[in-house]
User: Fold 3-hydroxyacyl-CoA dehydrogenase from Pseudomonas putida.
Amino acid sequence: MSALDTSVVVAVIGAGAMGAGIAQVAAQAGHPVLLHDSRPGAASAAIEGLGVQLGKRVEKGKLDPAQREATLARLHAVQALDELADAGLVIEAIVENLDAKRELFARLEAICTADCVLASNTSSLSITRIAAGLARPERFVGVHFFNPAPVMALVEIVSGLATAPQVAASLYATARAWGKAPVHASSSPGFIVNRVARPFYAESLRLLQEGAAECATLDALMREAGGFRMGAFELTDLIGHDVNYAVTCSVFDAYYGDMRFQPSLIQAALVDAGRLGRKSGQGFYDYGPSAARPVVSELRSGLRIEACEVEGDLGIAQGLLARIEAHGIKVSRAPSRVEPAPTGRCGSGLDPRCGHAVIRVGDAVLALTDGRLASQRARDEGLHNLVLFDLALDYATAGRIGISWSADTTPAARDQAVALLQAAGLVVSPLADVPGLLVMRTVAMLANEAADAVLQGVATAADVDLAMRKGVNYPQGPLAWADAIGPTQVLAVLDNLQAAYGESRYRPSLLLRRTVAEGRALHD
Ligand code: NAI
Assistant:
C-alpha cells in the first residue's frame, strides 16, 4: 500500500499542542494543510507560532530559510468546517471527549468526500467506539502521535473493529513518508505505549511505598543501571501527576480493575494535595528556589579486594566479570555448587543454571536477583551472607548498581560485596530486601505486559518493541530485553514475585510461559 500523494490536502482539526505539531509535520512533508479550530483565531495564531518556532531553527542553522517559507506557504488557517471539503485526510486533535469527537466526525461525514480518510489522534478513547456512530466506519482510523509531534518519531496507527486494513496500511505508509516510525495496533485500552509503560511507573511507586529506598535512589538506579533517560519519580513530576495518574486510572478501569494496572495511593495523595510536579513547584521532589538537592543513598567500602571466585554461568551479568578482571581483580571460575531450589520455582525448573551462579568474595556470596527475597533464597539454597544485585542494561558500562542482602548477612560480608562492586567502578546503592529489586522487576513486568499485548493480538513483538523505544525512549524494547536476560529467567522472576506477593498483578503472561516451554525466544 502506498503513501498518500503529497498533493493530497491534509486537514487538521484542533490547533492546540498536538494539532499544530501534526500540521507542521504534514506541511513539512509537502502536503497542503488546512488547520481548523473552533476557537476563533486559534488556527492562525498556531500557524504564526509555528512561523516563530521555525524562524528560531533557521537562526540556529538547523533549517533552510527556503524550507521554512515553503512549509508556512502550505499551512492555511480555515474558519469554517465546510472549507475542509477538499481534504483527502482529516486528522482530529480536539479535546479528549468522546461526545465532542463523535459529533465532529458526524459533521465531517457530511462535508468530506466518500474516499476521504478520517483519523483521530486520541490517546485514550476507543477507535471502535468513536467510529460506531459513523455511516462509513471502515475509513476511520487512529493516528496517535506523541508529544511533541514534530520531534517524536512514533505514530501508533490504531485500527478499530471496522477499520479497513487498506486504510490503516495507507496511513502507515504515509506516516513513514513523513519521516515517522509507525506501528500498527488494534484499538484496545492504552493502545501499545500507554499500556505497556504502566509498570515503569507502578513498580517504582510500589517500591517507594514499601520503603525499599528513597525516590532519588530509585531514580538514580533506573538511569544509571537501567539505562532509562529518567526514573519514574522525576518523569512523573515532569509529566504532571494529574495527567499520569489519570492515564493509569483510565487503563485500570478499562481493563475492569486488573491489578496489573492498579493506580498508586501515594500518587493519588500527591494529586489530592495539588503537588502535581514541576508545574506546581512540588511533586515527589521540591522545585522551589531553596529546595535541597535530593540525596542518593550509597554504600562505600574502604576494603581492598584481590580476588573472587565465580561459580556457574552469570548469563546476562557476565559483563560484570570482565569488568572486575579489568580492574585488576583475579577471578577464578568453578562449576556451580548450589543445588536447585527445593521449591523448584527458580526458572520453573527448566534451566538448571538459573539463579545458581554466584560470585564469592570473602564471606559474601553475590548473585543476580531471580525475584526471590534475599532471605528466602539464602534459606532455599543454604547460603549465608547472600547479597543480591540488580539487573543492569549493560554491566560493562553501568555507573551504578542496586543491592539487597539476606537478614543473616554480617556487616563485614556486606562490606566485602560492596568493595568488589566498587572496585569494578560501580557506585553501590542499597535497597531493602524486596523481591526482584528495582530494574529487574520493572523490566520483567514491562516484558510481561508487552508479551500479553502480543498474545492478545494488539501488535506484533517487533512493533511493541519499536513503540517503546520510539514513543518513550526506552533503551531497549522490553521483549528484546527479556530475550537478552533469557525468557526462562524473566519467567522465574515473575513466578517468584507472584509467590512473594501472592497477587495476580505479577502473573506471568501465557506467551512468556509458552515461549519458555517451547525453548525459543520472544522475538523468534
Ligand atoms: P489542546 O487542549 O492543547 O488543544 C485542543 C484544541 O482543540 C484547542 O485549541 C481547542 O480550542 C480545540 N477544540 C476543542 N474542541 C473543538 C472542536 N469541537 N472543534 C474544533 N476545535 C476544537 O489539546 P492537545 O494536548 O493538543 O490534545 C489534543 C488531542 O490529542 C486529544 O485527543 C489528546 O488526547 C491527544 N493527544 C495529546 C497528547 C499530549 O501529550 N498533549 C499526546 C497524544 C495525543
